Amino acid sequence: MNRVAGVLWDMDGTLLDSEKLWDIGVRELARELGREMTQEIRHALIGASGANALRIIFTELGLPPEPEAVAAAGHFLEQRVTELMSGPIPWRPGAVEALEMVRAAGLPTALVTNTKRSLTELALETLGRDRFDVSVCGDEVPHGKPDPAVYLRAAELLGLEPGDCVAVEDSVTGVAAAAAAGCGVLVVPCEIPVPVHPSRVHRDSLIGLSPTDLDEVLRTCRAVAVSDPGAS
After folding, report:
1. Is pLDDT above 60 for 232?
2. Parallel, antiparallel, or unpaired: how do β-strands 109-113 and 6-9 relate?
């Protein structure tokens, strides 16, 4: 039956317009390291886990990834983003209504993010903890997105099969993780384009999202998987 059993929500750039806060943090970090953040490097960081983001920053800025320097950079970035997330965080268009629609439909929900738990807890002050049955963060699995571990864990906690769930994502990295987990994937791009692919469904925004739309995402993704098992 092609009815969605649960919805797995990405956070930054999907529900919250928080990538703009991360943008401030990573650009200030680059200057702290004596460099300037280019737009190309910034785009490569969108959706990346903390460890991967630091690796990209040091590699692309041409800095030796000495453990002490990387640890100090991680501490700087976490402290700055903590400051930026300590107040209300802007929502993405239609996100509040989409969350309430899913709740009203009685669908189990999970927040699935590469952001570490301490920062996610700040974001949940805006999101509302009661809107999610479970949450899984990037520092709670062996590898963050694009590895599928966060999505597999979220589905497990909900007692659902990943293939019966729809994941809602905004980034190339997140889409790769959700697809690898076997979820149906709804893509709502935010800061950067996500290539169109027949194995996923794209929307311009979450405005007007309905349970029927989520069912259609699952049907579409399943149909492609059956006709082309190698599609991703």
Report:
1. no
2. parallel
Backbone angles phi, psi at 96, to 5 degrees: -60, -50
Q: Looking at 10, 12, 147, 164, which residue is catalytic?
A: 10
Q: How confident is the model at residue 22 (pLDDT cuts 50, 70, 90)?
A: confident
Q: Is 139 a catalytic residue?
A: no
Global pTM reads 0.86
For the record, the structure tokens of 130 come out as: 């009661």
Distance between CA atoms of residues 23 and 184, nearest Å:
29
Question: CB within 8 A of 86, min separation 6: which ones?
Answer: 122
CA distances 36 to 23, 26, 56, 143, Å, are 12, 10, 14, 28
Under 8 Å between Cβ of 25 and 81: yes
List beta partners, residue 91: 16
Question: Using CA atoms, how far apart are residues 160 and 232, in angstroms rounded to an integer?
Answer: 21
Polymer length in residues for the chain? 232
- The residue type of 218 is L
